[in-house]
User: What shape does this take?
Amino acid sequence: MNVEVFLTGSHVTEEDVEGRTVVVIDVLRASSTIITALANGARAVIPVADMDQAGKIAMNLDPSTYLLGGERDGDRIDGYHLGNSPLEYTPDVVEGKTIILNTTNGTRTIWNARNAEHLIVGGFLNANRVVQFVREAGLDVTIICAGRNNRVALDDALCAGLLLHRLWEGREPEYVSDAAHIALTQYLHDRDRLADALRHSNHARWLIEKGYGADVEYCLQLDALPVLPYYRENRLVLYRERQPSESVG
Amino acid sequence: MNVEVFLTGSHVTEEDVEGRTVVVIDVLRASSTIITALANGARAVIPVADMDQAGKIAMNLDPSTYLLGGERDGDRIDGYHLGNSPLEYTPDVVEGKTIILNTTNGTRTIWNARNAEHLIVGGFLNANRVVQFVREAGLDVTIICAGRNNRVALDDALCAGLLLHRLWEGREPEYVSDAAHIALTQYLHDRDRLADALRHSNHARWLIEKGYGADVEYCLQLDALPVLPYYRENRLVLYRERQPSESVG
Assistant: This one.
């Protein structure tokens, strides 16, 4: 299994994802929001690349069936029902709803990777579930850290390192891509104080300053929600095993 | 002094470099070739972003005064005088010449960063000289790793980590950018076996396979050429202290 890692997601090409299992990571907060919304009963999450796309999709849906969620500069977009805080996506709010999600880095990265053979969303919340899927799929895998405004984000890199550590069962192969090696090195450096390292990341500190500290703590919970957002026909749905149309490999 | 690091150079914007000291790192091999050419007596190196630009600049120069250098896919470009191997840039070849240099990642990154207040080129060969300049300039600094085809390159990241370690005299500040933290972590992880780690990088392995192993060994020599390529009026020249027009700060 060939493993590729991108430490920022903005310039992934179709060639980078074609025929592969692709894991998009945006720990703070799009991944965690998507995982939470689906775990809490949302019918689907439609990740979009920009405002225009969000508006067009909303226009074609019955207003009683969807919620618009997303952020710019970390805060809820004016006129949207929800921001990008996973804590807003409670069962009473999202059950049965389709969420149109519009975030600065995460949903744009998912959109860029939409032509993958399998496209899933990962974070600390569902790390083990992601590793299980990647193993069972058996395809080459590309882990894409969304990063932040074209820059590396420590939180995403640490999550990628954690996935690699588990995928490789602690034994780094002899030849890996430089980005994979760097993500794993960072994870091994911080694994004994992972939550502290994550709180210290640029994005976490920024969110904490903006009053979203509870979100940060929520997103750092390892394996708390063992569900898998899986992309199909322009939307993320809960992946369920043994459904023929969803079979892996 | 604010320190920013980019682990890939392809998407640096004018805003990222304006008013700052910018260090572009492309260890394998553009940085090392530029350092070597200037140390060996080349009059200047003109870094270009593509073939067109190289051709246009060459057309306006007296053919006896310049050499075209550069690579695609690691090898000398057809019709060029020189490739991108620093070992080709010997005194008898380059003395007094202007080199038009056209490489896949390095010279393009320099071109993207051309509006910096001070733009210098760094590698292992001149690491201490770079740190000395950055300190004396006293401005905020942006270290840009050229990387490789939009991807992180371990060799460049390790060189960035080394520069940070020396700049900070071994004490990482409390708040640094995630990319700086990651580069430093990787350097500290590998510092006791730096040459081996570098030989194991994706780019080094690729060059060794292509027969450029001697280049790799050459580029890894720490502080072997304490000279500073400095960008002025579209070209890199040797930085010389105490010349009023070149004064720092």
Remarks:
- Chain A touches chain B at residues 6-8, 10-11, 150-154, 157, 175, 177-179, 181-182, 185-186, 189, 201-203, 205 (CB under 8 Å).
- The two ends of chain A are 13 Å apart (CA to CA).
